[in-house]
Amino acid sequence: MTAEKAGFDHFMLKEIHEQPKAYRDTMLGRISDDGRSVALPELKITAEQLKEINRVHIVACGTALHAGLVGKNVIENLVRIPVETDVASEYRYRSPIITPDTLVIVVSQSGETADTLAALREAQRCGARVLAITNVVGSSVAREADDVIITLAGPEIAVASTKAYSSQLIAFFLFGLYWAQTIGTKDEAEVAHVLAAMQSLPEQVEKILAQAEVLKEVVESISHHSSLFFIGRGIDYAVAMEGSLKLKEISYIHSEAYAAGELKHGTLALIEEGTPVIALLTQEDLYEKMLSNIKETKARGADVLGIINEGHEAEVAKSVDRQFAIPRTLPLLTPALSVVPLQLLSYYASLALGHDVDKPRNLAKSVTVE
Ligand code: G6P
User: Fold this and answer.
1) pLDDT higher for 4 or 247?
2) Is the model's pTM score more than 0.90?
3) Ligand 1, atom 5: closest residue by C-alpha
4) Strand arrangement, sheet containing 227-232
5) What gap in Å lies between CA 177 and CA 174, rounded to an integer?
6) How far apart are CA 361 and CA 355, in angstroms?
7) Closest among 154, 157, 155, 140 to 106, alpha carbons compared
8) Bridge-partner residues for 60, per DSSP?
9) Residues 173-206: pLDDT tens digits?
10) How far is the CA of 111 from the centre of ligand 1 (A)?
11) How far is the CA of 61 from the centre of ligand 1 (A)?
12) What sign does the dihedral 191-192-195-197 (CA atoms) show?
């Protein structure tokens, strides 16, 4: 077993550390040599068919759905087509409006999740084209979807998904850019600009991983609390949801993710002296708004950890108790970096509390019952 873990204590930690490779492998061969366009030859959907699509549904479960929430931001930003996201176990039962011009994207690490597979079949029954983003070649989802983008994260053993999630983000970036270049919502220079930033992500994750020990110390401030909050705005909110799920899955600490501006409409009542709040502040255009949301929590006694962009350290220090800085990238790409400290935090919290990191109670890696 030790050999399989390549010297790491747990599969989860190994898989967190495999993310730079997973990003490189998922991008490999999909970016032109001159770095100016995306090639996805595996897609059967034609340029003409892509031009006809006028709505997107992203359907998945658990962590894969959280990748889909980022995917919504990515597609709406790059392609300017409305995207809805839905929990696979709800989608099928609510008579979703699916037309032949709807592209349904199912996201599944295993490609075997029963609810996701059922949603795929329902979408096809209603005449939609289905694109699958999955990590497993030959899985049920991969076999039945009309188009497939394989993430090359490699096998994921730990129940708590890490590298599969972040590779799904890379797949969304690539697909969003491919679609944008195909229908012309982004010109070549804009696509090249995003691709250049994407190619720096693996190295930037390595930089974050090199500071993992910092988070080990921070964990003391959360592991003895029974409840905490993750807050963020925009794409940070999507990442906050994944951070919260990760923590719950393996540390069993109750947490909630909140759109930061929504806190004052109810949840602020739960903040008291010492309540841990993890605040994501990677979106420059929402930075001031986030600072004021953080102040709202501080005024009620919250103990705040800020996940911030490099360069803001001195300024943010006035508003938070602790901080962790991630390297600078484009606003749309930040989830591929900001999720890493949250994964590490969950890992260290689980470890500190003496839980089975790789096999949390009550959970399975792949859920093949509806
Ligand atoms: C299970 C796993 C989660 C995962 C979800 C969806 O609940 O414990 O980590 O996100 O299934 O799995 P999938 O294989 O479809 O991505």
Assistant:
1) 247
2) yes
3) 62
4) 254-259, 227-232, 276-281, 303-309, 322-326
5) 5
6) 9
7) 140
8) 87, 107
9) 999 999 999 999 999 999 999 999 999 999 999 9
10) 9
11) 6
12) negative
The whole-angstrom separation of Cα 25 and Cα 74 is 20
**Beta-strand (E) ranges in the chain?**
55-60, 83-87, 102-108, 129-134, 147-150, 227-232, 254-259, 276-281, 303-309, 322-326
Residue 3, Cβ density class (10 Å: 0-12 exposed, 13-18 middle, ≥19 buried): exposed
**Burial track 284-298 (b if 16+ CB lie within 10 A, e otherwise):** eebbeebbebbebbb
CA distances from residue 230 to 87, 208, 239, 287, 368 in whole angstroms, order as listed: 21, 20, 9, 16, 30
Over the stretch 36-86, which tens digit does the pLDDT of each residue have?
A: 999 999 999 999 999 999 999 999 999 999 999 999 999 999 999 999 999
List the one residue out of 303, 318, 58, 328 whose CA is nearest residue 171: 58
What is the Cα–Cα distance from 130 to 114, expressed in whole angstroms? 16
In angstroms, the CA 175 to CA 177 distance is 5
Query: CB of 327 within 8 A of CB of 201?
Result: no
Q: Which residues are catalytic?
A: 365
Ligand 1 binding residues, C-beta < 6 A: 61-64, 108-110, 113, 116, 159, 161, 363-367
List the beta bridge partners of residue 322.
Answer: 305
